[in-house]
Design brief:
Blueprint: E1 5-9, H1 17-29, E2 35-39, H2 41-50, H3 55-64, H4 87-91, E3 105-112, E4 117-121, H5 127-133, E5 143-145, E6 148-151, E7 170-174, H6 190-207, E8 215-217, H7 233-245, H8 248-257
Parallel strand pairs: 1-2, 1-7, 2-3, 7-8
Antiparallel strand pairs: 3-4, 3-6, 5-6
Helix pairs in contact: 1-3, 1-7
Length: 260
């Protein structure tokens, strides 16, 4: 019986495309992921992968999805983009819309903004929980699930290893929300300042989890990409791919250790 290998995918907006590059390398190495846990962008990648979609298909999803289309703008709601209008986009890739239909065990983290607590979802409808986990404050409207408003999972837990602890034999973590230094010229708008402050606030708690992973992949060079810019998807994917390649020997060793 093969050991259970878990994969934790952090939030990071469009930088989450780097997760897809990592998945490509994991498949090339031959690592079979049994459990996934994700926040925000990590929940999107994790759900699509758990549903059986290949890294190539997930990359195409990001290229084809026009989140900031004017038709998605919110009217009389707290946010720029109406999150509910994105349900149809995910329905094309998650037709059964349930955790129980997925090929791999999935955990998605969202933030209960009414009761100030982190919530882990692992059963029932999955699309609503993806949208909740990805609802970046002020940009996407909160999501109502069973009468409670949820927002970005990264607010309280951007690197959710907890659901996999004690469940998986080995855990790989991919963190795509680095706290690199930035140039003054990059902080030239209210949104850029807000994003920077947000990343700094959630980064400290995530860094403390680094030592908990058997393999940690934290791609460098992602800070220069705006959280919501869709203009550099291929570049971000390559950064993730190369970061995973640099850990290839460690991943191959992990695979050996995971084979009885």
């Amino acid at each position: 019986m093969e050991n259970k290998i878990g994969l934790v995918l952090s939030g990071g907006g469009v930088r989450g495309v780097a997760h897809v590059g990592v998945l490509k390398v994991l498949e090339e190495v031959g690592i079979k992921i049994s459990h996934l846990s994700g926040a925000s962008a990590g929940s999107i990648v994790g759900a699509l992968y758990a549903a059986g979609h290949s890294p190539d298909t997930i990359l195409e999803f990001f290229k084809k999805t026009s989140i900031f289309s004017i038709s998605n703008y919110a009217i009389f709601k707290p946010g720029i983009i109406d999150t509910s209008k994105l349900i149809a986009v995910f329905k094309k890739y998650l037709e059964d819309d349930s955790y129980e239909s997925l090929q791999k065990k999935l955990y998605i983290v969202a933030t209960d903004i009414e009761n100030a607590q982190s919530k882990i979802f692992s059963e029932g409808p999955v699309i609503q929980t993806i949208l909740a986990s990805s609802a970046f404050p002020m940009v996407f409207t909160p999501v109502n699930i069973d009468g409670i408003l949820y927002s970005d999972g990264g607010i309280m837990n951007n690197f959710p290893i907890e659901p996999l602890e004690g469940v998986c034999d080995k855990i790989i973590g991919v963190y795509v929300n680095p706290i690199d230094t930035v140039k003054k010229n990059d902080l030239n708008s209210s949104l850029s300042i807000m994003q920077r402050a947000y990343h700094l606030s959630i980064g400290a708690s995530s860094l403390r989890k680094y030592e908990l992973f058997d393999v940690l992949i934290a791609p460098r060079g992602l800070s220069k990409y705006d959280t919501f810019s869709m203009s550099h998807i291929d570049e971000i994917y390559e950064i993730g791919y190369e970061a995973a390649q640099s850990h290839r020997s460690v991943l191959e060793k992990l695979l050996t250790e995971s084979t009885p």
